[in-house]
Amino acid sequence: MTSPRNGTSTGWGFLAPYGVAVVLLIALPAALNIGYAFTDHTGLTRDPQFVGLDNVRRLTEDTFFLDSVAASLFHVTLSVPLRLLAAVGLGLLLAAPRPGGRWYRTAVYLPTVIPDVALAVLFLWVLNPLYGPLNQLLGLFGHSGFNWLADPVTARVGVVLMLLFPIGEGFVVVLAARRMLDGRLYEAAALEGCGPLGRLRRITLPLLAPVLVLLAVRDTVLTLQVNFVPAYILTDGRPANATLYLPVYIFDQAFEFSGFAYAALISIVLMAITAAIIAAQMLTVRRWRVMR
Amino acid sequence: MRREHAPALPGGIRLQALTKTYGRVSAVDGVDLEVAVGEFVTVVGPSGSGKSTLLRLIAGLEAPDVGGVWIDGLDMSRVPPHRRSVALVFQDYALYPHLTVVENILFGLRVRRVPRAEARRQAGEAAEQLGLADVLDRYPDQLSGGQRQRVALARALVRAPSAYLLDEPLAGLDAQLRLSTRADLLALHRDLGATTVHVTHDQAEAMTLGDRVVIMAGGRIRQAGPPQEVYDRPADTFVAGFLGSPPMNIVPGGGVLGGGAATRVGVRPEDLRVDDDGPIETTLEAVESLGNETILVTRCADGTRLVARAAPRLGLAAGDPVRLCPDPERIHLFDANSGRRV
């Protein structure tokens, strides 16, 4: 048997590859990023110079940046609740065993394994104002349809629509969590005369609350970042900066305009916005006593 | 469904030809049973005997394939569980883990939209009655097994049902607590005077609690009657072997206990007396001393094993010859083929 001391060092040994990777690939670049934010680093030269708060001053006067923040906030406000609603709704609907259930569950998960680029190209067709199926569907209800990607609001909605499909991970988590709930609780509720909606409100959602909070936080982090690909393929930040989400603007600054230091600063802002939204979510959770 | 013989019962529970199958498995098979108003009936049987399914059929959580359930004289076949005026206490209590004790008790009252003040009063009364007043704000996982069981009972109590259905409510408790809770349960029943069907696999629980004991096996009722009667006059070899610990000795007829060739003969261990002049010659295989009594496991010359219950401190040891004498008044005869009492 190994001594406790040996056991501890073995533990650290197993942890080491992960620790080294975290330091080299996350902690160090993050520290460098903070440092670069206060330089004139272009990403092309080797000797960035310290410029103090110049980049911060530029940020406060940058209307593109304000557009970018607005686009990101619009997206996260609409996308997170809708993605969560879809994942939870479909998860709860398909959790119970039913004929053909596995096919429906596969269908819900499938868009998640499709590469973002492929899904975006698919949505170029879906949102096409002339022959896209979405406008044709609206036509069935007598609506003339939208010029989806040419109008600022519909372009943003189009990106949200596209990102409503890859919800497989949240869906699977809800599915698993729902299946772990004790069926007797539902029988006890049925004996009390609690209907399906009552059971959802009084049992399922409160018991799933920890999972839902986790999904909301995770989706907030994800949603603020994954809109990069659809925005790049569908609209390239247009029209009128409506889809110039923060990741897009960071990419443009860093790699197209050689503003590496400025991009570094915006990425810090993106992190701060993410943290602020999550903090607000956690405060809401505490205030509403969503969890025990 | 055959319901043309709707009985005119003033109250209580009546089950008629109740049948429920799952695939090829017959969980409940043609059960007829009447539980009078205020009666405490215990249903006992081994695992898979259909006793829990029977309870679920009465509660309405399962629909019978054939037969019907009448509660308070009303046909409940098409009545949903919450309109049946029964309260079911689940084996694992099924308390809502995200709600406190008082919220658990209030749950049903809130669903039924009982005015807040009235609901609080009823919940308070139930909690007081079951000694839960100090733990009202605790969550189920902060309670002991006994407290959880009482919360489940309190939740049933506030429904003020016509009948209580208890599905092994003592199974999750340790032996000592089970004993005291058994007494509490009886006291509660005496207070309420409510019709109660109590399912258990513990024969001691069934015998001590029930006004009447129903023994089930294979989805059928094997015997129903007052505890002592069922014990003294078992209807068949299954009941004879199931009730009593150690179980009744049942040997083929014409053997050491006499009887005809077409019979099987049974005698309970306490009805086999150690007697130097006894007619049955045996050798002691094992002596199990329980402190207040001794269980003697003996073997006859023909290989028949007989278990006898004797006084403590007999000074016997394995290998000793022992003569046994059965009480002739307490010999049971069963048909060798059907196993039914002759």
UniProtKB/TrEMBL annotation, chain A:
Q: Where is the ABC transmembrane type-1 domain?
A: 69-279
Q: Name one GO cellular component term.
A: plasma membrane
Alphabetized InterPro entries for the sequence: ABC_transporter_permease (IPR051393), MetI-like (IPR000515), MetI-like_sf (IPR035906)
Specify the protein's topology with respect to the membrane.
Answer: Multi-pass membrane protein
| Sorted UniProt keywords | Cell membrane, Membrane, Transmembrane, Transmembrane helix, Transport
A single GO BP: transmembrane transport
Indicate the transmembrane segments per the record. 12-38, 73-95, 107-127, 157-177, 207-228, 260-283
Enumerate the subcellular locations listed in this protein's record, separating them with semicolons.
Cell membrane
Q: Member of which family?
A: Belongs to the binding-protein-dependent transport system permease family.
Q: What is this protein called?
A: Sugar ABC transporter permease
Q: What is the originating organism of this protein?
A: Phytoactinopolyspora halotolerans
